[in-house]
Design brief:
The structure is a single chain. Helix content is about 20%, strand content about 35%. It is an alpha+beta fold and about 500 residues long. The chain has three domains: about 25-155, Immunoglobulin-like (Sandwich); about 160-265 and about 465-480, Immunoglobulin-like, CATH 2.60.40.3500; about 270-460, Zn-dependent exopeptidases (Aminopeptidase), CATH 3.40.630.40. Helix 3 packs across helix 8 (about 440-460). The longest helix has 20 residues, at about 440-460. The protein is globular, with a radius of gyration of 23 Å. The structure holds zinc ion.
């Protein structure tokens, strides 16, 4: 992702004013920051404004509501819709222009739900982290604070009481019963189709059986890595192909279900699919820039060269391909996912090159998916797996786009189908750039992108379907195989 792209997307957060200028839209200039996004990431509500604002929070009772007044702020002309899955603790989420210069967000909560509000240093985002509504804690909801970190009093770890698998031909579900409600999170790992279910604040219960087994063609291996202290317990799930992993919280019981399914549009053949290929930037948007002794390399040209090779390979596979640009023309950022949505495409694949402020300070390949979208994550894992095998560059993994921008990338956020954004390599790294310019490398990358997409749709070629019983086993004596678990800070 080039500096220019970063600047462009960054500008979106800095103001609609700038976006409108860049998009050459005729709307009048908005004088105040606007409400940009309301996004659920598991149990954390991100409230994002386009500029520096103040968040003022208070609580109303009967029914319990958390009110967040944002000022100075207005609603944008386009409708804001909340993104992500609404947690079960939330009965209702509303927002409105409360009065001139003040946007009010009201969160209706089930009684006794705990929460903590923190504000990002940039001053344009607040994060409201919801806790459980535990029966054992009859305290009043914690008042929101405006401090930089959630005022969390860590409760004792929850005990994992029971784990049971259920499965049918479409997928497998692991039902985990706990002693109280907790928040968990899914994180893709770099190696193949491995995903970590992080279980902070969970320790194994004393009567938890020693092993469980599941037999399902989607699942290759499951490892439970318990932490007696209840800080870093985790479950590693390795699947035989790109799979959609998602977590559901039971409304009443402290029960979490991990669902492992075939992802969206992962049926049939690649020849039946419609794929939108998006060569990043173009025309006046040059993207990132790489400088050799006697020449300058623009990201937009590399992106197009690779995209055209992907297009040719997909056409050879008899797939339907739509390009967001065929040549060096300028295409608006929002028109790219819009085109894919209007065409009813099955996939959206955006191709970019990465860049850093200082040359030669980073190297490697990354594939991004939007927020915690399980299908986008699966597609990113499939493409990244195949890319990492051929680039000869560091594998930076499949990553959520919210790690880069709080609202993610516009082209992924707006796409209604499984969507990824690939950062093939760093254009301002000498080694990476030498590869990016090489037609042979471009072809290898294009082949890997198509191979990854094909593996997502049709399954891994020649992969052995695991038919033996798969054990979940304590991983305490196999520390080398269990990656370190990172506990998200807001938990
Ligand atoms: Zn870019």
């Amino acid at each position: 992702m080039p500096t220019a792209w970063r600047v462009l997307v960054g500008v979106i957060f800095l103001g609609f004013v700038a976006v409108r200028t860049l998009a050459q839209a005729p709307e009048p200039v908005a004088p105040l920051p606007t409400l940009q996004a309301l996004r659920w990431d598991e149990s954390v509500l991100h409230i994002v404004a386009s500029g520096k604002v103040t968040f003022h929070t208070f609580t109303l009772r009967e029914p319990l509501r958390v009110v967040i007044d944002i000022s100075p702020c207005t609603l944008p002309q386009e409708t804001v819709e909340s993104e992500g899955d609404t947690p079960t603790a939330v009965e209702r989420l509303r927002w409105a222009q409360f009065k001139e210069g003040v946007v009010r967000v009201v969160l209706g909560l089930r009684e006794n739900t705990q929460y903590a509000l923190s504000t990002a240093a940039s001053g344009n985002e607040a994060m409201l982290a919801l806790g459980s509504s535990p029966a054992e804690e009859n305290r009043k909801p914690r008042p929101a604070t405006s401090s930089a970190k959630p005022a969390t009093l860590p409760p004792p770890p929850a005990e994992l009481v029971r784990m049971e698998w259920e499965h049918d031909k479409d997928g497998a579900r692991l039902r985990m019963t706990l002693s109280r409600k907790v928040l968990v999170r899914l994180r893709p790992l770099k190696e193949g189709y491995s995903t970590l279910l992080e279980l902070p604040q969970v320790k194994p219960g004393t009567d938890l059986p020693a092993d469980w087994s599941v037999k399902h063609p989607l699942i290759e291996e499951v490892q439970f890595s318990p932490d007696e202290k209840g800080v870093r317990s985790a479950l590693l799930v390795r699947t035989t192909r790109a799979a959609s992993l998602s977590v559901e919280y039971d409304k009443q019981q402290p029960v979490i279900t991990l669902a492992v399914n075939r992802p969206r549009n992962a049926h049939g053949k690649i020849s039946e699919k419609h794929i939108v290929i998006d060569p990043g930037h173009g025309g006046t948007s040059k993207g990132a820039v790489g400088r050799d002794k006697d020449s300058v390399v623009y990201e937009k040209d590399i992106n197009l060269a690779i995209a055209q090779r992907v297009q040719a390979l997909l056409q050879k596979e008899k797939a339907t391909v739509t390009m967001t640009r065929e040549d060096d023309s300028t295409v608006d950022l929002y028109d790219r996912p819009k085109l894919a949505n209007e065409k009813g495409a099955d996939f959206f694949i955006s191709i970019h090159c990465d860049s850093t402020p200082a040359p030669n300070s980073a190297s490697g390949t990354t594939t991004y998916y939007h927020a915690s979208d399980p299908d986008g994550r699966a597609l990113a894992q499939a493409i990244q797996k195949h890319l990492a095998a051929v680039t000869g560059l560091p594998n930076r993994g499949a990553q959520t786009d919210t790690a880069i921008y709080q609202s993610g990338f516009a082209v992924l956020r707006r796409s209604e189908m499984p969507a990824v954004l690939i950062e093939v390599a760093y254009i301002n790294n000498d080694k990476d750039r030498a590869k990016l310019k090489d037609p042979k490398f471009q072809q290898k990358v294009a082949e890997a992108i198509v191979a990854g997409l094909k593996a997502y749709i049709e399954g891994e070629k020649g992969s052995q379907v695991a038919q033996q019983d798969v054990k979940i086993r304590p991983a305490s004596d196999e520390k080398d195989t269990v990656p370190p678990v990172q506990i998200p800070e807001q938990l």
